[in-house]
Amino acid sequence: MVYDLAQPYFTGMPHHPTHPPFLFSLVKRHGDFTGPAGHSSAAESFALGGHVGTHIDALCHYSCGGKLHGGQDVESVQSYAGGIEALSAETIAPIFRRGVLLDIAGAAVLPEGFEITPAHLDAAAKQVEIHPGDVVLLRTGWATYWDDPRKFVSAVHGPGPALAGARWLSARGIFAAGSDTLAFEKVPAPAMPVHVHLLVEVGIHIMECLNLEELGLRPLEKVFLKHFQ
Fold it and tell me: What does the pLDDT average to over 175-192?
């Protein structure tokens, strides 16, 4: 079975307010220029930020104290014209890895201020094993709000792990962690401790705005997790 975890793009789709939105326009319509055989073509233009829609954070996405992951000085490798020339997205090798879904929401949708704690992660992981190098996905149910951008963004308030949950994940040596929310970690979080810990301190990629609804959950797991809702 193959699951597509990407959310669809559309004009007005949810995006973090500090990132550019997705913009699309049909700039040449059929019939604007017609060839001698009556043929015509259409052309479109689109633009978007690098963190709009379903995406993975390269390790250069966050720094702390002027340093990237591994202690790289960020000022020496960044420029407006050239971007960031270390730990950027093209350095991520193709990802063919074991994926683990931890369905924290179960049959419900987690509320805005819900913190995914180590206790929730322990409960979900009782049904599966997490191995070093895995990709661990946390389902909160927020993918169901994708067609309602105002609700999905919620002024950048949303459920997710705080630092304790991030450390639970990093202790297992995973390659990447992802969720169906805008910011992965519980927000608002002015210091963004989860991003700093995972991306800068331990070098674990973050995936955001995933669609985890099709993956589902085994009935026993739903019953077990209901206690935490």
Answer: 98
